[in-house]
Fold this sequence. Notes:
Layout: E1 3-7, H1 13-22, E2 29-35, H2 41-49, E3 52-55, H3 61-67, E4 73-76, H4 83-87, H5 90-105, E5 110-115, H6 119-123, H7 130-145, E6 149-154, E7 156-157, H8 160-163, E8 167-170, E9 175-181, E10 189-192, H9 194-216, E11 220-223, E12 226-228, H10 230-241, E13 245-250, H11 256-268, H12 279-282, H13 291-303
Parallel strand pairs: 1-2, 1-4, 2-3, 4-5, 5-6, 6-11, 7-10, 9-13
Antiparallel strand pairs: 8-9, 10-12
Helix pairs in contact: 1-9, 3-5, 5-7, 10-13
Amino acid sequence: MPRLIAICGATGNQGGSVAKLLLQHPDVYRVRALTRDPQSAPARRLAELGAEVVRADLTVPSDLHEALRGCWGVFGVTNFYDSKIKDDPSSEERQGKNLVDAALANGVQCFVWSTLPSSHAISGGRLVSQIYEGKYHVDDYIRAKGCPAVFLYTGNFYENMVFRSHMRYNRELDRVEFHQAIIKETTQLAMLYVQKDLGAVTKAVFDHWDVRKHSLNHQYLYCANARLTPLDILACVKKLTGKDGAYHALPTTGVPDRDIMFHLYNEAGMYGTKALPDENVRALGVHMHGIDDFVREVLAPHLGLPLL
Length: 308
């Protein structure tokens, strides 16, 4: 019988990547897509693909206890762009803990949690971002409660160049312009092609859980294929499209906590000296995709640029 997987943020980037991949394997998995708005266009599209779409608000524990009923697995993520978190950063930690409590109450066998390390530990207490700390504190809660789980450290998303309008083609100047808050042109960011790889890593964890759960339980998997600077990304765009580029670091995101996160990237990078791709991800049989793949498949078409 296919195993039922509850997916948080199923209409977004991370959860959507997991939902869409699992829906391609109906003989193995059933998808319960959790969303605050089951009538949204993305939610309706998931229903058309075969997902069970359920209304659930991570801030409401009773919603989650019902939404996770009968589930074998969970993909858990909180969205720091959510207005509830933007207006109250501590909400992210509460949402994550609510999800863990519901998973434990329903006997969930495999909880996959999208997370980040402690910014306090990385910076020695100088650059503390609640975006980081909220997720990190949920990690501690998962371990303390004995929830069977795998932690996914996600990279910076290639998709943000499109979804956040970081990159545009200036036809008048015939060049690509890359605008991003605070990040220096030489800062190396661990990068993730979410739509290709996050779902693949999550599915691999679910696929291997029965055989490898003793080694996978509470393991950290680094979901990123390489470290790249903004200049590296522009160099790839030029290689594949022939267009020159210019990078502009904007002074602020407009949200203080996100600004701290980006200053942390400038100072400490992402994930220290961890080799990417992660050997533990490769051991699960996952091939991570890179910037060339993203430019060819998504960015160049989005910018209206033909490939060379």
